[in-house]
């Protein structure tokens, strides 16, 4: 997760401006969408009765941090690089931003992994799952941030030459690969199990429909995550093991970086499309904001 793979040839200023506009646009969508998501969960307490939604709140927090910290730093140094060259990527403030980027990115990855594990447990062992209290969910969320912090510490140690890059890189690859394998195995298991359950149980139709919709939403969230993050990790993997492949064009790096940032702005769209209660709450929030204006207009007529 670094910019050492970026080529030495600098892009013309108009191209840099175009890239900065793209990143700023994505950043605005990230901040607005995830801030709205947190407002929705805060406004509608019924959404939090489903304990799996705790993880969606955690995911929204991680994505919001991407929009507040990671994207602005990257965009600023992208613009600065057009004037001062690629040496700006090695400056201390951006190195700190890269540590935070690792921290936030791993939080998203580990949250989606926990979501997949929790859904498997819910579908395959429903009676045991119902007995799990809220504290267990808080502990799982805490473990996500602790593991993410440890990955960020490894990045910091590598930056200060206290460990070799390959040590940090292997930890990163193992963490991402393990998460990806767990996620890719979990959803086929969920699909097979739910298909069997729906074929044999009809009297809990409402609960089954809710579980089916939630499973579909989480599957789409995870699929989008893999699609947007996998190229970034493949790029780092290839550049690490193939020395001759490290001369990568700026445009490819910026596209892949933008792609994994886009992941942080699509989740609110998915929620609005697949969760009716979420969509209704969003409409109520905007209706509430507009109602005083409508009432004032009525009194004038």
Automatic annotation (TrEMBL):
Gene3D superfamilies, per this entry? Rhodopsin 7-helix transmembrane proteins
Instruction: State the organism of origin.
Output: Exaiptasia diaphana
Q: Where are the transmembrane segments?
A: 16-41, 53-74, 94-117, 137-157, 169-192, 213-232, 252-274
Q: How does it sit in the membrane?
A: Multi-pass membrane protein
Sorted alphabetically, which keywords does the UniProt record give? Answer: Cell membrane, G-protein coupled receptor, Glycoprotein, Membrane, Receptor, Transducer, Transmembrane, Transmembrane helix
List the InterPro entries hit by this protein, alphabetically: GPCR_Rhodpsn, GPCR_Rhodpsn_7TM
Q: Name one GO molecular function term.
A: G protein-coupled receptor activity
A GO CC term attached to the entry: plasma membrane
Q: Which SUPFAM superfamilies does the record match to this protein?
A: Family A G protein-coupled receptor-like
- In terms of superkingdom, the source organism counts as Eukaryota
Q: What is the lineage of its organism?
A: Eukaryota, Metazoa, Cnidaria, Anthozoa, Hexacorallia
Where do the G-protein coupled receptors family 1 profile domain residues begin and end? 33-271
Q: Any idea what this protein is called?
A: G-protein coupled receptors family 1 profile domain-containing protein
Location in the cell: Cell membrane
């Amino acid at each position: 997760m670094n910019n050492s793979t970026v080529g030495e040839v600098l892009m013309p200023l108009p191209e840099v401006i175009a890239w900065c506009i793209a990143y700023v646009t994505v950043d605005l969508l990230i901040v607005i969408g995830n801030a709205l998501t947190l407002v929705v969960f805060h406004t509608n307490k019924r959404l939090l009765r489903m304990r799996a939604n705790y993880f969606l709140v955690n995911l929204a927090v991680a994505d919001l941090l991407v929009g507040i910290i990671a994207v602005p730093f990257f965009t600023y140094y992208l613009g600065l690089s057009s004037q001062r060259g690629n040496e700006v990527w090695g400056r201390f403030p951006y190195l700190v931003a890269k540590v935070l980027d690792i921290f936030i990115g791993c939080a998203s990855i580990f949250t989606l992994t926990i979501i997949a594990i929790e859904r498997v447990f819910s579908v395959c062992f429903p009676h045991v799952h119902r007995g799990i209290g809220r504290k267990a969910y808080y502990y799982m969320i805490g473990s996500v941030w602790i593991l993410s912090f440890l990955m960020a510490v490894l990045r910091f140690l590598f930056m200060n030459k206290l460990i070799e890059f390959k040590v940090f890189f292997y930890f990163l690859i193992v963490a991402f690969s393990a998460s990806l394998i767990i996620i890719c195995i979990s959803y086929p298991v969920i699909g097979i199990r739910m298909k069997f359950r729906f074929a044999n149980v009809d009297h809990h139709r409402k609960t089954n429909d809710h579980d089916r919709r939630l499973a579909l939403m989480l599957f789409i969230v995870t699929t989008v995550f893999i699609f947007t993050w996998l190229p970034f990790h493949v790029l780092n993997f290839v550049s690490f093991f193939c020395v001759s492949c490290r001369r990568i064009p700026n445009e490819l790096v910026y596209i892949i970086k933008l792609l994994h940032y886009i992941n942080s702005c699509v989740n609110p769209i998915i929620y609005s499309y697949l969760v009716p209660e979420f969509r209704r709450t969003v409409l109520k929030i905007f209706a509430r904001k507009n109602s005083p204006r409508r009432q004032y207009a009525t009194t004038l007529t």
